[in-house]
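Record type: monomer structure entry
Structure origin: computed from sequence
Chain ID: A
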Amino acid sequence: MNSDTHAATRKRIYLAGFDVFRTDAADYGRSLQRLCARFGFDATFPLDSVAPTGLPRAELAAWIYRANLAAIGTADIVMANLADFRGAGEPDSGTAFEIGFATASGKDVWGYRDCATPLLRHLPTTMTGAGRVCARGFLVEDFGLPVNLMLACTARIVTGGPEACLRAMASAYATGSTPSPCRQAGGSKIRQLDG
């Protein structure tokens, strides 16, 4: 196979996650892209798009939104950092939106977390007559999943970091496996892979 054919068959990943809020985000994004390349994937990091200078804040926000959706549109796969962000048991809300957009667009979605502890055991809760509630008094779902069912049923979630996720992805795509069977035919089987 020549290099042009090989490049045409490489899957493109959109790297979703709160990593864009790191103080070293650009460098970290490049390290993730190099890691993806090691596993045979091309990758786009949200900060790859350079915004025009001088935009008012609201226009800049809208520009970033459109650029990220366009990048997801050109990707085959979304790989999302689903670790807790700004609160126990809750991934980044922007990442959750990107996962929903990718799912609606028919993209494969993979996610990774540092732990697979079910949400009910991961969050501090209090037992009430209605069930277990969080500190704010809302019921906590009990499906044995590490994140909200709308994310867990959308993505194939790997326990570990980006390298564990990429390893699982490369293995799955090499054997023709696809992400979350929940999306295939409306089934209820949820798969989790330990990295």
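Annotation 1: The CA atoms of residues 24 and 30 lie 10 Å apart.
Annotation 2: The mean pLDDT is 87.
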